C-alpha cells in the first residue's frame, strides 16, 4: 500500500525541516496518491553520483554528504 510509503515520506519531510538547512524532501500530492500510486512533487537536481556536474554548479559534494549524514544520524538517534 503506497499510502504507507507516502506517510513515511511525509514524516521524513517534516523531520528534515527541523534539521539545518540544505536538504529537502519532495512533498506528497495526497490528491493523487492511493494504495497503488504514489505522486510526489517534481524536484530538479543532479545525481550525487555525477560529482563533476555537482562541482560544476559550484556546490561542494563534501558539504552535501556531511549534511545528509548529519540528517541521517539525527533521525536514527
Number of strands: 0
Low-confidence stretches: none
What's the N-to-C terminus distance? Answer: 27 Å
* Helix-and-strand structural type: mainly alpha
Order of helices and strands: HHH
Instruction: Describe the largest sheet.
Output: none
Percent of residues in helical segments?
40-55%
Strand content: under 5%
Query: What is the radius of gyration?
Result: 15 Å
Shape: globular
Q: What is the average of the pLDDT values? A: 90
Count of individual helical segments: 3
Can you describe this structure?
Helix content is 49%, strand content 0%. The model has no long low-confidence stretch (mean pLDDT 90). The two termini are 27 Å apart. By secondary structure, the chain is mostly helical. The relative contact order is 0.18.
List the helices and strands and how they pair.
Layout: H1 2-17, H2 51-56, H3 61-76
Structural descriptors:
77 residues, mainly alpha, globular
Summarize the structure.
The chain has 77 residues and is mainly α. 49% of the residues lie in helices and 0% in strands.
Amino acid at each position: 500500500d503506497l499510502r504507507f510509503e507516502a506517510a513515511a515520506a511525509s514524516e521524513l519531510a517534516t523531520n528534515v525541516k527541523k534539521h539545518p538547512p540544505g536538504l529537502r524532501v519532495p512533498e506528497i500530492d495526497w490528491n493523487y496518491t492511493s494504495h497503488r500510486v504514489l505522486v510526489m512533487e517534481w524536484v530538479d537536481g543532479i545525481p550525487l553520483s555525477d560529482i563533476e556536474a555537482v562541482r560544476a554548479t559550484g556546490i561542494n559534494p563534501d558539504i552535501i554528504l556531511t549534511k545528509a549524514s548529519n540528517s541521517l544520524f539525527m533521525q536514527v538517534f
